[in-house]
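ok trying this again, last paste got cut off
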Amino acid sequence: MKLRLVAVTTAVSLTALSFPGAALAARKPAGKPAAPAVKDGDRDGMPDAYEKANGLNARKNDARADKDRDKLTNLAEYKAGTDPSKADTDGDGVRDGDDKRPRVKDPKPVPQDQKGTVTSYDAATGTLKVAYTKGPTLTVTVTAATRFAWHRKGCAAPATAASLVPGVGFHKIDVRAAKPADDEPADEPTTDQPGDEPTDDPAADRPGNDQPDADEPDDDQPATLASEVKPALTPVATQISLMCAA
């Protein structure tokens, strides 16, 4: 009888000791509820709400499709924040797939890949002036390295600089920036010899040692005149694709 009473008392004591901890655990504040998962029924990486709002199929995996045919898939449009139903989201004339900044309207470049006609060509200087069908005029320099080609078949003779007659059409002109010519010394080694002028100093005069920047008023060559300053160089045409009228 005494053993049973001791066992009951011990059980009651253990229950009383464990109760406060259990009560504290029950009163512990619960964590923040988990955010509801975005519904993506077809599991294509795009929320159903987005697909419905942009005319896509929320019940079919169309992540790799390209609804507006701008070289960006539907999933890529979703990630980039562009309009999957509009090939040119920012309206700058460049398709989203070709645009480095598809959400920023960039200024239009000079239309050097548009069609136009030759206005004039000076074979002596290589100066070619053209007018684009849609865009500004352009002046380029034609050199011996400029390549020519016909855009259409039918012209038997090869395209050359002689084909640059006023009125002839062109399909494309590729250009590069002109490089200024290397400055040449004012004196050649054979023209300035030691002691050839009264004011020359034979000890300081050496063939080929006379530089344009070192010309003095009493030297054999004057300093560069303002009228001799070269104007801004025009771009150089590297390739010209002409329209064959045949």
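PB: full thing came through this time. Helices lie at 2-27, 48-53, 74-80.
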